[in-house]
Structure formats: C-alpha cells, structure tokens
Amino acid sequence: MSQQDPNQPAPDPYAPPTPEGTPAGGAAPTPPPYAGYEGGYPGQEGSGQPVQPGYPTQPGYPAQPGYPGAPVYPGRPGDVDPGRGIGIAGFVCAFFVPVVGIILSAIGLSKSRGAGRKNPLAAWGLGLSIFFTVAFAAIVVSVFASHGDDIADAVKGANDPTTRRFCQADARLTKEMNVLQDPSSMETQDYAQGLLDAKDDLDGVVAPDEIATDWKAVVSFFDKIVAPLEGVDTSDEAAVKQALGSSGLTQADLTTVQGAGSRVDDWASTHCAAVPVD
C-alpha cells in the first residue's frame, strides 16, 4: 500500500475518471497531425496544390426605368373640357339670339368631342337654337303671307311724295277734329275759328287716286258745315249759333260721310304706317 504525498491535493471523489495515458499533471496529450492534410489545404502557400481561381464579380443590375405618367381619362377630376364654356354660352343664347346659339353650341360641341368629352349643354343649346330659329322663320313667313300687301303698301306710301304729304296732312287734321268734337268745352268764337281753319287745311290736301272720291265726300260734308260761318263775326255768339244751325245737312249726308271717312281711315292705316308724322 502506497503512501499519499502530502504535497499533492486530495483527489476529488466526484471528478470523472481520467482516461488512460493522461499525464499525471492533467494536461491532454497532443494528437498527431492528420495524414490527409500534410500538404496543407489547396490554395495555401507552400501547400503544393494549384490555386483555385476566384469567382468573377457579379455585374450590378441596371437601374429600373421610371414608369410613365398615367393617362388622363375623360371625366377624371381635374380634366378640363375645352368646349364647356362655349357650350354654356350657346345654351343661353338659344333663348335670346338663336342664330348665335347655333354657332356657339356647334363650336363647343366640336371642341368637347375633339377632347373625348361629352357636352350635353352644347347639344341642348344646338337643338334649341335650331328649333327657335325655324319657329321664328315660320312666323315671319306667315306674317308676310297674310299681311304682305299691307307691308308693301306701307313701303310704297313712305316712298311716294303724294302719299307722304297726304298722310302728314291727315295726321294734323285728325288732331284738329278731335279738339272740335266737344264744342261745349270751347268758347264759341274759338270753335267757329277752329272750323274755318280746318276747312282751309282740308282744301289744301291732295288725296291719292285710290281715295280721291272718298276724300272729296269728306271735304264736301265739311264745307256744308262751315259755309254758313263765312262772313259771320265769330265774336257774335248768337250769330255763330244761327249759322251752324242753318247748314242744311241731311241724314243721307251723314251716312255718306261716315262710309267715306271709314274707307279713308282704312287706307291711311296701311299706307301711312311707315310715314313719319309730326
């Protein structure tokens, strides 16, 4: 039985067993070199093995090109219709100046279609403008068809010197006669003098051939009224009243002058329509 060295520590009873061949100091033995690697790894200096070429550098990927901008589709917010404003103007003009409405609406509709847009206002404006233009033309044609003769007479009267002078004289006489319609509102002397002045004006009027006979009947009737006043002192009220009562007019005279006056008025209403009067 061996004796334990007092200088050595006591063995640990819980330590794992030491393999055989392990030095007493506890240091692990150095293993021999592996035979397969005696020459070193390939590529190492002094290994005697050829140097493996390196992998070529991978080329970089080219930069991705930018995507083009998205196209603008009709009706997209922010898209401007080039014919919208003109189309609105054409729609408004359809109710007031339809001929202008046709032009503006057609331009607006063309611009909108060129931009791939719909323009309902321009379409409505074009339709309404055409409708109102046709309706107006039909009315004008109808008026000329029914009153063409009257219009022609009015134009002729304005250009004929005799007709123009008659119309102007007739307008003045109408004013004078309207004043003499109510003798009670006038002084007797003023009334008598007004009749004498009107007679002088009537005698100086030359009527056109179409109404010459009727005009002569009117002047003759008025002469019968005024003739007793000639030579009478108009300031003598009694003498004036006596003269006016002795005109000798009959019912037949009244009937004749009413028919003649009506025909003269009808003729003047058309032929004098375009004649300027004072």
TrEMBL record:
Keywords: Membrane, Transmembrane, Transmembrane helix
Taxonomic superkingdom: Bacteria
Entry annotated with the keyword Transmembrane helix: yes
UniProt feature coiled coil, ranges: none
Keyword Membrane: yes
Transmembrane segments: 86-109, 121-145
Region (Disordered): 1-78
Skewed-composition ranges (Pro residues): 8-20
Protein name: DUF4190 domain-containing protein
